[in-house]
Design brief:
With about 300 residues, this protein is of the alpha+beta class. It has two domains: about 180 residues, Thiol Ester Dehydrase, Chain A, CATH 3.10.129.10; about 120 residues, Hotdog Thioesterase (Thiol Ester Dehydrase, Chain A). About 20% of the residues lie in helices and about 35% in strands. The protein has six helices and eleven strands. A hairpin with a 6-residue loop joins β10 and β11.
């Protein structure tokens, strides 16, 4: 990130007000004809609230320990992402953006007692056969050391998407984020029964108050028959299931496929290797895949 403006924040932004502001100011944005903001949001002096971390672990099935879950670090950078997307210089309206993928890299275990500097920025506006994708990046540092990196990919659908089928110079591959995932773990290792109020439970601990997750009524207003589980809850729950096997440094690549309607019963399937794991969350029969995840140790 060269030649960018740095905006220092005094406190973590409120997600709810930012979501509302983004909805109100969404009309008239230029879309892919615009440019991403050349701005990096930075929040220094971040210390952990152990009670909040414990609540997150309880909702996502993790064990509270001395090392912070990678998905908790995503939760802490998420308000910065939302602030960027809600700002008037972000080219796309927030309503309708779909979180389709997430990548994280843990360079070393991050201790609960360490003070962090968090940052977030937008990059890689890329043509997709359904519209465009954009990455919202996150980073956690201890002093000058980068200890965690994250990237959330959002799909912005368009009624006139760019022609990327030809795959000419500079054209990215036509990745279909709504496909079946890149791996096929079949062994069922856990069954989870998800209550209707799971979205509200996760929103309380993670701050993501998008109305599609909170109730059937608010979800129907946005085109869903019932509330859907947060993709990042599914991500956190799957990663927590292999928490004891995670090395000190690793990367995780996750695709969010079909939404999980609440209430629901889902199955975690896994293929575990030496220093790696392929995971999938499916329906009970295994015919409908909600999430695909690959975890591997860093050299």
């Amino acid at each position: 990130m060269d030649d960018v403006d740095v905006e220092l924040l005094e406190t973590s932004p409120g997600v709810g007000p930012a979501l509302l502001r983004g909805a109100v100011t969404g009309a008239g944005r230029p879309g892919a004809r615009g440019t991403l903001p050349r701005r990096r949001l930075v929040l220094t002096g971040v210390e952990q609230e152990v009670r909040a971390l414990a609540d997150f672990c309880e909702v996502t099935g993790g064990l509270l320990g001395n090392a912070l879950p990678a998905t908790w670090l995503h939760v802490q950078t998420f308000p910065l992402q939302v602030r960027l997307m809600a700002a008037r210089d972000f080219p796309f309206p927030m309503l309708g953006m779909v979180h389709v993928a997430n990548r994280m890299r843990v360079h070393r275990p991050v201790r609960v007692d360490e003070t962090l500097t968090l940052s977030s920025w937008a990059q890689d506006l890329t043509p997709h056969r359904k519209g465009h994708t954009v990455d919202l990046r996150g980073e956690a540092r201890v002093g000058d050391e980068v200890v965690w990196e994250g990237s959330s990919t959002y799909l912005v659908r368009s009624s006139t998407p760019p022609d990327v089928a030809g795959g000419g110079p500079g054209t990215p591959p036509d990745t279909d984020f709504g496909g079946d995932g890149s791996t096929d773990p079949t062994r069922a290792v856990a069954t989870w029964r998800l209550p209707a109020g799971l979205g509200r439970q996760y929103a309380r601990v993670a701050g993501d108050v998008n109305p599609i997750h909170l109730s059937a009524l608010s979800a129907r207003a946005l085109g869903f028959p019932r509330a859907i589980a947060h993709g990042m809850w599914t991500h956190a729950r799957a990663l927590a299931a292999v928490q004891s096997r995670l090395p000190g440094s690793y990367e995780v690549d996750t695709r969010f496929l079909k939404p999980i309607l609440l209430p629901s019963t889902v199955v975690l399937r896994a293929a575990l290797g030496q220093g790696s794991a392929d995971l999938a969350v499916t329906d009970r029969e295994g015919s409908r895949r909600h999430l695909s995840m690959q975890v591997k140790a860093l050299p």
